[in-house]
What does this fold into?
Amino acid sequence: MIPAPTKLTAGDSQLSLLPDVGGAIVSFTVGGREVMGQQPRQAIAPVTLGDEDDWVRAWRGGWQLLLPNAGDRSPIAAEGFHGGASQARWVLEKCSQRLARVSWADAGGLAVSRELILRDGGLRVTTEVTNQSARERPILVTEHLVLGGEMLAADARLFADAPTTIQLLAADGSGNEHESEAWPGNPQLAWERVGIGTDPRVGVLTNVPASGVTMSTDALSAQVTWSRDELPFLWLWEEIEATDKAPWFGEYRVVGIEPSNHPDTRGLDRATQLGTAQVISAGATRTWWTDLTITPVDPATSERSLGGVQ
It folds into this structure.
């Protein structure tokens, strides 16, 4: 049985953290309004070395770290879909009203610490990864930050400043079929608008400036910023009740705004073969942060234009 989530509170904001399943932020409410993506079905127990179907069925919603794999199951690296850390049991090292620290380590000597600091209307997560082994390790890292709830109660709009580019990934998770284009890309794809009728898809954004990416409705705005030197890419995943087959069943209403260190979703085995996986040296430490800010939208400015989006 999974223990009840750990709660943090700051002003009008509340966060629920689930250390026992990926150290996941399963709920983040601002003024009583949920902004995290939610699991519409009863979650199963995590499956070791599982595939995408297993992972989705065990997902508890919200925001978790994908590491040391992000994307397809990678049997050579002995990593399941989205990596061992994403649904493993983490240790709650510290907890106060506005702060929590969790840790996780794998059998190969990769040690991870995440510090969450909640503020009224916002949250910053700082991650530190240390390779405690005597050999270098290839790793894929993605902050699986998935919005939903009140953020998708109605159609939403996405904003990104120049010089952001967007590339639609192919069905195999590669970028082989489509070119990168200046945001918001091909008008027929309408990346800047999300709602019923949006095709299920994953795109990768590059050259995102310090202002990050913002998703807005008529009521709320969510701005995501992050350490772009460590995580130079952003996965944009959209699933708006559009995939009828298992494990989705046309029930998921989510948008992932996911800073990453890799430009496709084919997983660690493929990245290692291509030489595109980030390598962390023996004894080295890598650190990055990701920030989510939620603010009410002023109706007078809700039709703002950023990066050519009207």
